[in-house]
Write a structure and sequence with these properties.
This protein has 238 residues and is α+β, with helices and mostly antiparallel strands. Helices cover 30% and strands 28% of the residues. Helix 2 crosses helix 3. The protein starts with 7 loop residues before the first helix and ends in a 6-residue tail after the last strand. Pfam families: zf-HC2. InterPro entries: Anti_sigma_zinc_sf (IPR041916), Znf_put (IPR027383).
Length: 238
């Protein structure tokens, strides 16, 4: 891991990198196991942030509860990463000293590397909402990277809030989330985003679930929990 990429893991998972930075970081991940491990460790951040009710988020203030939540999670993650790095250095030094005394030849058989072939799945709508999406799943050494293209082709919603609604809380945007279900039937949230009528959104996500273990994909409304789009996934590389 180099200093340049040391803090890119969370930005990558949360979709905060520019397209050029994202491509650069993905090339780096192929050759850097430490950064790949770091991405896997923060893959659950979107799920953590989704637990913050939208009405409790006061805006973009750096002192908001959501900002504190993210900062705390990242701080703990980086402390754990430094401790592991120091431990690895110590173990490496002891191993080198032992090797100078006794030469041990170990012949091992490694398992096959994850397939580099990406799989794209188009999700089917479960409602009348004008929402379409496809998910590109790229196997990585640490799990699976997921890129969601979500298109909201519905008409423009009225600018006035619904009758009796609070004008200050009204927004045409909707929060969506991508859930992944593994072969054991366990579902996890891997990415979230906002969309409004006429928008076209690319959302990045990551999970430590291997591509061959992913069995089902769903896009839900984060606020209501309703399933809007879904698709089964044919076993890949199992």
């Amino acid at each position: 891991m180099t200093d340049r990429y040391a803090d890119w893991d969370a930005s990558y998972v949360l979709g905060a990198l520019s397209p050029a930075e994202r491509r650069e970081y993905e090339r780096h991940l192929e050759a850097c196991p430490r950064c790949a491990e770091a991405v896997a460790e923060v893959a659950g951040l979107p799920s953590l942030l989704a637990r913050v009710p939208i009405e409790e988020v006061p805006g973009e203030s750096a002192e908001s509860p959501q900002s504190d939540l993210v900062a705390g999670a990242l701080a703990k993650h980086r402390i754990r990463r430094r401790r592991r790095r120091w431990t690895a250095v110590a173990i490496g030094s002891l191993t080198a000293a032992a090797a100078a005394i006794v030469l041990v030849v170990v012949v091992g058989v490694s398992g096959p590397a994850p397939s580099a072939t990406a799989v794209t799945v188009e999700l089917a709508s479960t409602t009348q909402e004008a929402l379409t999406a496809d998910v590109r799943m790229q196997p990585r050494a640490w799990g699976t990277e997921l890129s969601t293209r979500c298109r909201y082709t519905g008409g423009v919603q009225p600018t006035d809030p619904p009758a009796g609604g609070d004008p200050s809380s009204y927004s045409a945007e909707t929060r969506y989330g991508l859930w992944v279900t593994d072969r054991a039937g366990v579902s996890s949230l891997v990415s979230t985003w906002r969309a409004e009528p006429g928008s076209d959104v690319d959302a990045a996500g990551a999970t430590d679930v291997r591509l061959g273990d992913i069995r089902h994909l769903e896009i839900r409304s984060v606020d209501s929990g309703d399933v809007l789009l879904q698709s089964d996934v044919t076993a890949v590389g199992s």
